[in-house]
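User: Here's a structure from my thesis project, written as C-alpha cells. My advisor, Dr. K., wants to see whether a designed sequence matches the one we expressed. Can you design one independently, without my sequence as a hint?
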C-alpha cells in the first residue's frame, strides 16, 4: 500500500502567525518584550518545548519557570490554533487528487497532537488523513526517525514518500530511509541545495505528478 506522509507547520499550513501570536501573548503576560515573526519562525521545527526554550533563552527568562511558561503557551495556542493560519495555495487540491488516486495519507508533525488535530479540523483537512502523529505522540520527536516510522506502521504502508518543509524533516527522512519531497516555501533555514531531498517543489500543483512519478519508478 502506497502512502504519502506530510509534515504540518510550514508544509500543509502557514501556521506561524498563530504560533507567533501565542508566544507574544505569553510574553505580554510575563511583561517581556514582543518578538518578531521572523525570530519566532527561526525557533519553529523541533516542537513546542524547544520553541519555548528558545524564546525564554532569547529573552533571558528564568528557566526554572519553563514548565509553567510552556503550559501557558500551549494553553493560549489551543484557544487560537487556526485564527490567523492559512493553508498553502493549492495544497487541498493536491490532497484531493492524491486521495482520489488511492494514496493513503498521514501527518507526522512535531506540533503537539492536540493542536495538530485541532488545526486540521479547523482547516477542514482532517478527512484526508488516516493517521496523525504529533510531537508528543511517541517517545521521540523528529529528526529521530521513530515518529515517521510509527506513522508508516500505523498506516500499514509498504511504500512511502514524506513531504516536509524543513531540514528537520529532511534529516528524519534520511534517518528513516524514506524518500523525501521538500516544499521550499515553508520554514527552512538553509538553501534548498543544502537540504537533502529527492524532490523539491514550490507549488502544490506540482505534487501529484511528483508523487505518481516516484511510485511508478
Ligand atoms: O511544532 C513544530 O516545531 C514544527 O511542527 P512541524 O513538525 O509540523 O513542522
Ligand atoms: Mg514543518
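Assistant: Designed independently from the structure alone:
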Amino acid at each position: 500500500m502506497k502512502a504519502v506522509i506530510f509534515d504540518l507547520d510550514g508544509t500543509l499550513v502557514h501556521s506561524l502567525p498563530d504560533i507567533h501570536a501565542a508566544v507574544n501573548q505569553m510574553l505580554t503576560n510575563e511583561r517581556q518584550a514582543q518578538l518578531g515573526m521572523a525570530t519566532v519562525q527561526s525557533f519553529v521545527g523541533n516542537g513546542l518545548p524547544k520553541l519555548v526554550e528558545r524564546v525564554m533563552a532569547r529573552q533571558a527568562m528564568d528557566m526554572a519557570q519553563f514548565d509553567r511558561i510552556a503550559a501557558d503557551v500551549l494553553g493560549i495556542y489551543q484557544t487560537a490554533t487556526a485564527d490567523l493560519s492559512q493553508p498553502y495555495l493549492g495544497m487541498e487540491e493536491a490532497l484531493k487528487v492524491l486521495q482520489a488516486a488511492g494514496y493513503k495519507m498521514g501527518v507526522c508533525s512535531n506540533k503537539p497532537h492536540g493542536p495538530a488535530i485541532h488545526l486540521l479540523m479547523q482547516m477542514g483537512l482532517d478527512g484526508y488523513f488516516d493517521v496523525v502523529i504529533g510531537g508528543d505522540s511517541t517517545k521521540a520527536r523528529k529528526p529521530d526517525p521513530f515518529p515517521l516510522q510509527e506513522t508508516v506502521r500505523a498506516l500499514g504502508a509498504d511504500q512511502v514518500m514524506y513531504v516536509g518543509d524543513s531540514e528537520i524533516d529532511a534529516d528524519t527522512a534520511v534517518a528513516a530511509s524514506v524518500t523525501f519531497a521538500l516544499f521550499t516555501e515553508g520554514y527552512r533555514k538553509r538553501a534548498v541545495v543544502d537540504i537533502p531531498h529527492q524532490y523539491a517543489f514550490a507549488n502544490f500543483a506540482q505534487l501529484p505528478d511528483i508523487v505518481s512519478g516516484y511510485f511508478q519508478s
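When you compare it with your expressed construct, this may help: The domain at 16-79 is CATH 1.10.150.240 (DNA polymerase; domain 1).
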